[in-house]
């Protein structure tokens, strides 16, 4: 294998690992996919070291090493991309794809999200069913639906302007709680506490939390702890938003 | 018996909706959304069944999360997609929302008061412990199949 081929393969692999980390895959999956892709493309071994905001990758073939570092940034969770990269890895392993096909498909990847008009009512319905599962009555479910739909609308609109995620969560929690406490203010429902609990559940950082525990359980303690810290910060900032809204409404204080 | 069945069906339906909603937030591809719904419904109704038998909520959550992990590994093998894609959306309905909310409310009240009241403190501790342990049971239960069966080989 010539040196420039090894360069090229290493670049593709590190690009794949970078994309996986940016769109929210767990460390074990990142390591596994980059090693399997490396083997499939003809490298002797691929070693990878992941930290909270960068990754270092070394490829070895014929006694010749290439080490390269990439900065990673969070781009939000996008499972479509993770799925696509996994498929590329599997197809390469089966021998259907060579380096050129891998390069072509990786360069064609772009993040696509669900449009707002589906996302907003769907999250409203989700939080309304949480409220129903917690034992709320119909009026409570309706309040939850409106509160969390509006909250999701705010969240998506803020996210489009690339504000800090913590700020986004605080503002969204504030708006959501402001609407959800209408049940208290006008005594519309018999279970006024449940809309407030159910409608802010859309802010639960589910993916960072599960990823962090499964990273820590599988031995990537470093990344796991940093993801845990991120999830905790997100929770704290939404609590701040909730508290401000409740103080404005004069509840529990 | 009939009542239990109806309650389980009700549970399954209303936990399938949040599973799909959150799967859309995580941008799961459209063709996999029904599987997220199925996994979410199975997980939450299994937990309700275990709670009905009389298991404490932490253990019931742990068993339900392990079941979700098993089911989603089956889906992952069939579709060649990462199992966490289905699993995280599926366990969202089991997140201890009311416990977490009660903890936070009691904490805020405790901050606003000038002296420490025993009722609020006990509320913080009991609700907080429940939240932490249910969350731990969820995530460790989800990792269980890959810790027990897929120790040395990849899932797909």
TrEMBL record, chain A:
Its record classes its membrane topology as: Multi-pass membrane protein
Any single GO BP term: succinate transport
Where is the major localization of this protein?
A: membrane
Please give one Gene Ontology molecular function term for this protein. Answer: transmembrane transporter activity
Q: What would be one Gene Ontology cellular-component term for the protein? A: plasma membrane
Q: Which residues form a coiled coil?
A: none
What keywords are annotated for this sequence in UniProt?
A: Cell membrane, Membrane, Transmembrane, Transmembrane helix
Q: Pfam families given for it?
A: ThrE
Q: Where are the transmembrane segments?
A: 133-153, 165-184, 196-213, 233-252
Localization in the cell: Cell membrane
Q: Does the keyword Membrane apply?
A: yes
Q: Which residues form the signal peptide?
A: none
Ranges for the Threonine/serine exporter-like N-terminal domain?
A: 13-248
Q: Which InterPro entries match?
A: ThrE-like_N, ThrE_Dicarb/AminoAcid_Exp
**Family of the protein in this entry:** Belongs to the ThrE exporter (TC 2.A.79) family.
Listed PANTHER family: SUCCINATE TRANSPORTER SUBUNIT YJJP-RELATED, UPF0442 PROTEIN YJJB-RELATED
Q: What is this protein called?
A: Threonine/serine exporter
Question: Per the UniProt entry, what species is this protein from, by scientific name?
Answer: Shewanella atlantica
UniProtKB/TrEMBL annotation, chain B:
Would you tell me the Gene Ontology cellular component terms? plasma membrane
Q: Which UniProt keywords apply?
A: Cell inner membrane, Cell membrane, Membrane, Transmembrane, Transmembrane helix
> Taking the first listed entry, what is the main subcellular location of this protein, grouped into a coarse class?
membrane
Q: How does it sit in the membrane?
A: Multi-pass membrane protein
Q: Where are the transmembrane segments?
A: 6-25, 59-76, 88-112, 132-150
GO BP terms: namely: succinate transport
The listed locations are: Cell membrane
Segment forming the signal sequence = none
RNA-binding recorded as keyword: no
- Show the InterPro entries listed in the entry: ThrE_2, ThrE_Dicarb/AminoAcid_Exp
The Threonine/Serine exporter ThrE domain, residue ranges: 12-147
- Quote any Pfam family the record assigns: ThrE_2
Keyword Membrane tagged: yes
Tell me which family the UniProt entry assigns to this protein. Answer: Belongs to the ThrE exporter (TC 2.A.79) family.
Protein name, per record: Threonine/serine exporter
**Species, as recorded:** Shewanella atlantica
Q: What is the lineage of its organism?
A: Bacteria, Pseudomonadati, Pseudomonadota, Gammaproteobacteria, Alteromonadales
């Amino acid at each position: 294998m010539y040196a420039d081929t090894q360069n090229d393969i290493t670049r593709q692999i590190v690009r794949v690992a970078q994309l996986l980390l940016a769109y929210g895959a767990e460390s074990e999956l990142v390591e596994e996919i980059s090693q399997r892709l490396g083997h499939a493309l003809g490298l002797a071994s691929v070693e990878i070291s992941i930290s909270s905001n960068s990754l270092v990758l070394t490829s070895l073939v014929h006694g010749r090493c290439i080490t390269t570092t990439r900065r990673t940034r969070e781009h939000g969770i996008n499972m479509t991309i993770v799925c696509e990269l996994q498929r590329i890895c599997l197809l390469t392993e089966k021998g259907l794809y060579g380096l050129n096909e891998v390069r072509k498909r990786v360069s064609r990847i772009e993040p696509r999200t669900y449009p707002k008009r589906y996302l907003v009512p769907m999250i409203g319905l989700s939080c309304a069913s949480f409220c129903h599962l917690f034992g709320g009555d119909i009026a409570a479910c309706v309040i939850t639906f409106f509160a969390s739909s509006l909250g999701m609308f705010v969240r998506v609109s803020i996210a489009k302007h690339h504000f800090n995620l913590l700020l986004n969560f605080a503002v969204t929690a504030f708006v959501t709680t402001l609407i959800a406490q209408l049940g208290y203010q006008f005594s519309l429902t018999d279970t006024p506490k449940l809309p407030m609990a159910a409608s802010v559940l859309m802010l639960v950082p589910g993916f960072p939390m599960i990823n962090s525990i499964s990273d820590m359980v599988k031995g990537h303690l470093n990344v796991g702890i940093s993801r845990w810290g991120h999830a905790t910060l997100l929770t704290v900032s939404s609590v701040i938003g909730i508290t401000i809204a409740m103080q404005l409404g004069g509840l529990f204080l | 018996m009939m009542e239990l069945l109806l309650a389980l069906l009700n549970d399954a339906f209303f936990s399938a909706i949040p599973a799909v909603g959150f799967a859309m937030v995580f941008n799961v591809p459209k063709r996999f959304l029904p599987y997220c719904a199925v996994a979410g419904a199975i997980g939450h109704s299994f937990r309700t069944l275990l709670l009905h038998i009389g298991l404490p909520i932490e253990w019931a959550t742990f068993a339900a999360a392990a079941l979700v992990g098993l089911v989603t590994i089956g889906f992952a093998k069939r579709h060649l997609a990462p199992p966490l894609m289905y699993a995280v959306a599926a366990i969202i309905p089991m997140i201890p929302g009311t416990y977490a909310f009660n903890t936070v409310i009691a904490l805020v009240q405790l901050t606003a008061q000038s002296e420490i009241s025993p009722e609020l403190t006990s509320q913080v501790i009991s609700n907080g412990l429940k939240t932490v342990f249910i969350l731990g049971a969820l995530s460790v239960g989800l990792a269980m199949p890959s810790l027990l069966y897929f120790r040395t080989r990849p899932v797909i």
